[in-house]
Amino acid sequence: MKATPRILVTGAGGFIGHHLVKRLKKDGFWVRGIDVKPTDYEASPADDFALLDLRLWENCLQATKDIDQVYNLAADMGGIGYITANHADISRNNILINTHMLDASRLNGVNRFLFSSSACVYPQYKQNDPDVTPLKESDAMPADPEPGYGWEKLFAEELCRYYKKDYGFETRIVRFHNVYGPLGTYEGGKEKAPAAISRKVALAEDGGPIEVWGDGEQTRSFMYVDDCVEGLVRLMASDHSEPLNLGNDRLVTINELIDIISRIAGKKLKKQHDSTKPQGVRGRNSDNTLLNQVLGWEPKIDLEEGLAITYKWIENELRKAGRLPALTAGQMAD
Ligand SMILES: NC(=O)c1ccc[n+]([C@@H]2O[C@H](COP(=O)([O-])OP(=O)(O)OC[C@H]3O[C@@H](n4cnc5c(N)ncnc54)[C@H](O)[C@@H]3O)[C@@H](O)[C@H]2O)c1
Fold this sequence. Notes:
Blueprint lengths: L5 E5 L4 H12 L3 E6 L12 E4 L5 H7 L5 E4 L7 H6 L1 H21 L4 E7 L30 H19 L3 E6 L2 E2 L12 H11 L5 E5 L5 E2 L2 E2 H13 L6 E3 L5 E2 H12 L4 E5 L14 H7 L7 H18 L8 H5 L1
Parallel strand pairs: 1-2, 1-4, 2-3, 4-5, 5-6, 6-11, 7-10, 8-13
Antiparallel strand pairs: 9-12
Helix pairs in contact: 1-7, 4-5, 6-8, 6-10, 8-10
Bound molecules: nicotinamide-adenine-dinucleotide.
């Protein structure tokens, strides 16, 4: 009988990592979770959860000992405000994590290594129009990625490809497009648009103002975290070692995103656009042609459905923190 693979998830104290550990445990795997910090909202179900700084080589050797498969999700990252303000820290930290994790995995005899890249690797010159042509994997070159975060992701992708070519080391490379869902960061500067907007809508008075970064006409696509985890598991099991998009391909403007979340909250809000705030590229969407070919599947959870779950979770967190009034018995019964 073949032994069940022992799996390492790095970044297991973070958003996607924590959801992935839960899924892998449900599927019956033995899982080690590593992060530099504990999980934020609930305990990790990992069989072994340890705090290690993966920028350090010896910690990567320790983390990958007796492991068959690695999902390398640990990264210094955040929303557009964070990644545009911290180019040096993000680039240095993530190059150290990814280089050490990749080599430690190879030396410790890991069978498969999945690297979590990002749509931020795509060239800025292809994303100047809100009505953007969806980005296919081959569009990444000639390179002109997001400064800092996009460059280090692109370099780490290339490093994975070199390891496959020179050492025959099995790597998988996923390019996430904006992942959202419950148990993610929703304030403090590292949160992404769906969580930040959900928090702002929850805290806003009905009929009151809501701050919008830029003119709100910039476009993105958003993938619910359960789809993200499903895609990760499928990609790991596949034979595809070249970069693969993992995202939803429904394009919405940030203004539309605010309207959807406001409707979920039952509020009417007045948008106040702030052109001094960073807004990233003008438009970005995922071309899922290759994803469908390789995995025979693509993300399918509806944006309204995923945002309703996410909004309710953030609203509840704010209630627990005493920043929104507790629900009355009548409201709870509704
Ligand atoms: N969430 C998205 O929309 C999105 C989009 C594109 C790419 N990604 C990539 O997916 C991965 C997971 O993202 P996430 O949204 O869960 O982010 P997250 O910030 O919630 O999780 C990343 C985790 O890595 C940990 N980490 C950072 N530095 C570390 C270190 N030196 N040693 C050990 N752990 C360290 C952090 O503490 C954090 O818990 C990252 O590689 C990220 O770049 C995410």
